[in-house]
Amino acid sequence: MPRTTTVECPGCPPLRALTFDALGLIKVIEARTKEGGVPKVVERWGDPDAAKCVLAASLDDRKTDPLLAVARKSGVIEVLNPLNGELSVTVSNVSNGNARPEDDAIVGLHLFRRQILESTSRSCTFLTCTTKGNATLRSVEMTDSPSDSNASKTWNVCGAGNISFSQVDGNESYAVFGGKGVEVNMWDLDKCTKIWTAKPPPKNSLGIFTPTWFTSATFLCKDDHRKVVAGTNSHQVRLYDVSAQRRPVISFDFRETPIKAVTEDLDGHTIYIGSGSGDLASVDIRTGKLLGCFLGKCSGSIRSIARHPELPVIASCGLDSYLRIWDIATRQLLSSVFLKQHLTKVVFDTNYSEDVKYYEADVAPHEEQSIGEVQTADETEKPRTKRKKSSKEDRGSKKKSSKEKDRTKKLKSKKRSKSLENETADDE
């Protein structure tokens, strides 16, 4: 049974989040002021299927024509409308028909806001990266019969090892890759050339060398691609400065389990890290100082952390099937939702507003019943109610009261026996 938190949840500000799980389901969670800020599942897209497990997702939240890209375990990339879940384009990422998608799964996906490749206005461009390091920059036409346009580039980002992640900077000009046996390396997306590769740290004082195994990374600032923060399987957090040196500028350990998720804050120097044991903390990367851990430990590995670009909150999800919303200033748990399946990713929809009603209007009438079922099934996390144990004083008072009752009963019986004896004596 998953552990439940004992922290009282005050509720969330108005927000909208999308979660992705191991059965390929996409669930829309909304928190509204009139409902006390309690997040609830309002929509569920797709059918449960393990082959459709969402491995990566990217949301382009522009004001006009927003798009959502999803990479599935079957090797299919879907482009959807994040407002109603309507499928726009489906593209297969499997180049060779004989190869199984599971052998070279997609581990990184990014949907571009700007047009990098020469294509029409009715097209979307995204970057994918597989476990074996096959990176593809592709443009797809947004038509009824989708097909890949001639504008596409493919290259390999590693000679050996397995890629675990890929991340694109805020200006969408550079990308970093890394993984098991693959050092963090940066590529220029316009030229598809490698511009920097990290150098492994030297052996420690005991002469022990830690093998390279990166699990996650993020750019420290959206406007500056030179600083990258990466987490390792050996519970280390490293800060790299491309313009300074190849080895880490700062490196420190966090707990004793692998780092599974890293994301940056808007201030440009604070990061949020999640571990395989469910620890979530904020760190000042300038000094490597731990600012504090978030209250209410998760009961499973954290796989994704998202920072809201406007509200002072972050969201985390992972293998304990809970979506949790946290306050950044107090590091307190605001609310949580149990979503049944192992969660792989969470993103915020920044265009959400309580005044806009198009979210409800986009839902088809035949979906209203299923949505209601989801609302009742996906319960919010509540602290367990424990039975109060009786104290020693209560037990003592109960014993005293029972003894007094026995005494009164005995006195009454004695009085009755005496009265009967007197009556018999009078009769004689």
TrEMBL record:
<feature type="region of interest" description="Disordered">
    <location>
        <begin position="367"/>
        <end position="428"/>
    </location>
</feature>
<dbReference type="InterPro" id="IPR001680">
    <property type="entry name" value="WD40_rpt"/>
</dbReference>
<dbReference type="InterPro" id="IPR011047">
    <property type="entry name" value="Quinoprotein_ADH-like_sf"/>
</dbReference>
<keyword id="KW-0677">Repeat</keyword>
<dbReference type="GO" id="GO:0042273">
    <property type="term" value="P:ribosomal large subunit biogenesis"/>
</dbReference>
<keyword id="KW-0853">WD repeat</keyword>
<protein>
    <submittedName>
        <fullName>Uncharacterized protein</fullName>
    </submittedName>
</protein>
<feature type="compositionally biased region" description="Basic residues">
    <location>
        <begin position="397"/>
        <end position="417"/>
    </location>
</feature>
<dbReference type="GO" id="GO:0030687">
    <property type="term" value="C:preribosome, large subunit precursor"/>
</dbReference>
<dbReference type="GO" id="GO:0005730">
    <property type="term" value="C:nucleolus"/>
</dbReference>
<dbReference type="InterPro" id="IPR015943">
    <property type="entry name" value="WD40/YVTN_repeat-like_dom_sf"/>
</dbReference>
<feature type="repeat" description="WD">
    <location>
        <begin position="295"/>
        <end position="336"/>
    </location>
</feature>
<dbReference type="InterPro" id="IPR019775">
    <property type="entry name" value="WD40_repeat_CS"/>
</dbReference>
<dbReference type="InterPro" id="IPR037379">
    <property type="entry name" value="WDR74/Nsa1"/>
</dbReference>
